[in-house]
Amino acid sequence: MTDPKTHSLIEDAQGIAFGATMAAFSIVILTHLGLITGQTAGLAVLLSYASGIPFGPVFFALNIPFYWFGYRRMGLAFTIKTFVAVAALSILSALMPAWVDFSTLNPAFGAILFGFVSGAALLAIFRHGASLGGIGILALYLQDRTGFRAGQTQLLFDAALFATALIFLPWQTVAWSFLGAAVVNLTIAINHRRDRYIAT
């Protein structure tokens, strides 16, 4: 009988592939509109705008210090899966702009669409025992150990990041960005609950 709390290797691979692909698509939406987001991805986007270095390499580099913490706190399997998810997102985010283009994308709808797509991506990755690194590792650790929801931890980090972004970006851009980030965090806070959903 299959244990409903575990996934096979093929199921993990599919879930992480889905999550990384959807996350990359959400980054295409985000950067097309010139917006930012929260978490490590948001910091990577902001640094990418400021430096001119593509998002992928910045995001990959920012996550390097967190793997040791992930290994010590969450285990080897989590760390390997997270590394794979981060690497896949970094590569796909560099390739996907050549595959996807928008002739029209309303900023309000785009921010909401980003939030839903990114939220779905993160849920898939979380439920297959991984994260997209950085603050996501800390958020998952706190949720598993204390019950403090991952979405709420990310919201606190986002607040500091968006306050910093106001120094460099127009307030309208930050406002639309905040809308997208709020949709991401609400999606995770409502749906990523171990007391309600038994699959890990």
From TrEMBL:
Q: What keywords does the record list, in alphabetical order?
A: Cell membrane, Membrane, Transmembrane, Transmembrane helix
Q: Which InterPro entries match?
A: UPF0750_membrane (IPR051461), YitT (IPR003740)
Q: Which subcellular locations apply to this protein? A: Cell membrane
Which chain regions cross the lipid bilayer? 15-35, 41-62, 74-96, 108-126, 174-191
A Pfam entry, by short name: YitT_membrane
Main localisation: membrane
Domain of life of the organism encoding this protein: Bacteria
Q: Name one GO cellular component term.
A: plasma membrane
How does the protein's chain sit in the membrane according to the entry? Multi-pass membrane protein
Name the PANTHER family for this protein.
Answer: UPF0750 MEMBRANE PROTEIN YITT, UPF0750 MEMBRANE PROTEIN YITT-RELATED
The protein here is known as YitT family protein
Taxonomic lineage is:
Bacteria, Pseudomonadati, Pseudomonadota, Alphaproteobacteria, Rhodobacterales
